Amino acid sequence: MDIKILVATHKSYWMPTDNVYLPVHVGKEGKEDIGFIGDNTGDNISTKNANYCELTGLYWAWKNISADYIGLCHYRRYFTRANPINCEKKKQVILSRNEWEKLLEKHPIIVPDKRKYYIETNRSHYNHSHYAKDIDTTEKIIQEKYPQYINAFTKVMKRTWAHMFNMFVMRKDYLNEYCTWLFDVLQELENRTDITNYNVIEARIYGYISELLLDVWLETKQYEYYEQNVAFLEPQNWIKKGGIFLRRKIMGK
């Protein structure tokens, strides 16, 4: 089974040695070489990395890699078989090639465990964290270009959970289908949105929007998928993150 799981990175960092993982320097065009293959060869959108984030790596893989299964994770965030507290131990439980083969023999699509917001819907969370007009524009685009997806969009926006991080592993035919739809929606959003005055964080608009579009696609297609644990390799300040979450809920972005 030919599996390639991209590890999106923009800097030199620890990487798994298992050859199922392919470290990719996203946004490499015009940047200093950090020793990893770049997303700036062949058909690519490497120069859009500031706005598309890890999706420039996904686009590159979609257009340039031939494999039975293609996936995406991050240099600090991986699919794992457990979630120990110790960050070094987390490296030891990252899924291996053998484990991926067993999973993918049973399931054509692997996504992260649900990220639950409890007191927020996906739409209200986005509106409190970013510019509400951008999710509104996305809704209009789907209504106009892909009306068969609009019921799923409405359903996903009302949920209090989502499969986040733009992380997944898919059989290549599913990936081709998903990326064809996803990048068309995002290109249309790009055509309709002026981000000239967005700060560096908000300029990542297409990466943020795409996190929600994965579930819209899954809900519409009703493809079978399997949820797998995800671990972050660095310590996280949950008190700080919780405070930011509540402040956005009360005061908005």
Q: What do these coordinates show?
A:
It is a single chain. It contains 10 helices and 11 strands. With 253 residues, the protein is of the alpha/beta class. The protein has one domain: Spore Coat Polysaccharide Biosynthesis Protein SpsA, Chain A (Alpha-Beta Complex). The chain has a 7-stranded mixed β-sheet, with helices on both faces. Helix 7 (150-158) crosses helix 9 and helix 8 (172-192) packs across helix 9. It is globular, with a radius of gyration of 18 Å. Mean pLDDT is 94; it is low at 238-246.
Q: How do the helices and strands line up, and which of them pair or pack?
A:
Blueprint: E1 3-9, E2 21-25, E3 37-38, H1 49-52, H2 55-64, E4 69-74, E5 77-79, H3 87-91, H4 97-106, E6 109-112, E7 115-116, H5 122-129, H6 132-145, H7 150-158, E8 161-162, E9 168-171, H8 172-192, H9 205-221, E10 226-228, E11 230-232, H10 238-251
Parallel strand pairs: 1-2, 1-4, 2-3, 6-10
Antiparallel strand pairs: 4-9, 5-11, 6-9, 7-8
